[in-house]
Amino acid sequence: MKKTLGIISVGILAIATVFFIANTNDLKNEVKLSEEVSNTSAPTKGQMKAELETFNFDDAVANAELIAEVEIGKQIKEIDDPAPKTLFEATVKQVLKGTENLENIEVLQQGNSEWSFNDNNQFSPNEKYILFLKKAVGEGYEGSNVYWILGEETNIYSIVDGNKVVKNSLYEEDLKRIEEDTPVNTLNLITKNERKKDIQILNKEKFEKRIVEIQSKTNSN
């Protein structure tokens, strides 16, 4: 059952609204960005807000082509058209779903140095995540190893303290039983994440086991 995460943008004075559609065939159906620009005092970094198509956890596992623990490498490039994005190198540490012999992939994240997407921070080198991914298709991506993030921030899980993962957006009831009691402010998380009410801190081993269980259940049906 799909859920919709609605986020309302706030503009200042005269506002011009432009809609962007992301550049992969699948992603076109998932993300519509609304850009608001002030004509008088434009911020250093523009703000993009979005209404995302999201999934419950079982559906997210089913729809992802690749679920992997990755370590972010260097930024490859920024993309402006048709929507601001950044392409990063990523080293695959563990595959939880998908092609098991992957070593290196490239990951598209919404936003770039000029535009912030839903107030999310851009990836930085050496950060570790578990990401739910789809293969990028269409012109310019044939034969590439580029993936985009399913549901964007709702399926980005930060790995912290080695044995915990943090779901940064969209609280998931199905994961409540594997939550950790550790206070958020003891995990050295970014300030923005500390302010989010729907953040979940999960046991990494149990989280990975849950992904495997869902796949086994799906394959047996």
Describe this structure in words.
The structure is a single chain. By secondary structure, the protein is mainly β. Helices cover 15% and strands 41% of the residues. The protein contains 4 helices and 13 strands. The chain has helices at residues 25-28, 57-63, 191-195, 204-220; strands at residues 2-5, 15-21, 31-38, 46-55, 66-79, 85-97, 104-110, 115-117, 128-135, 146-149, 156-160, 164-167, 200-203. The strands form 2 sheets. Strands 1, 2, 3, 4 and 8 form a 5-stranded mixed β-sheet that branches. A 5-stranded mixed β-barrel has the order 5-6-7-10-9. β6 (85-97) and β7 form a beta hairpin. The longest helix is centred in the C-terminal third of the chain and has 17 residues, at 204-220. The two termini are 18 Å apart. Residues 1-42 and 190-195 have low confidence and may be disordered.
Features:
mainly beta, five-stranded mixed beta barrel, 4 helices, 221 residues
Topology summary:
Layout: E1 2-5, E2 15-21, H1 25-28, E3 31-38, E4 46-55, H2 57-63, E5 66-79, E6 85-97, E7 104-110, E8 115-117, E9 128-135, E10 146-149, E11 156-160, E12 164-167, H3 191-195, E13 200-203, H4 204-220
Parallel strand pairs: 4-8, 7-10
Antiparallel strand pairs: 1-4, 2-3, 3-4, 5-6, 5-9, 6-7, 9-10, 9-11, 11-12, 12-13
How many DSSP E strands?
13
Strand content: 35-45%
Structural class comes to: mainly beta
Q: How many strands, which pairing sense, and closed or not: the largest β-sheet? A: 5 strands, mixed
Mean pLDDT: 78
Poorly predicted sequence stretches spanning 5 or more consecutive residues: 1-42, 190-195
The helix count comes to 4
What is the approximate shape? globular
What separation lies between the terminal Cα atoms?
Answer: 18 Å
Radius of gyration: 17 Å
The helix content, as a percent range, equals 10-25%
Order of helical and strand elements: EEHEEHEEEEEEEEHEH
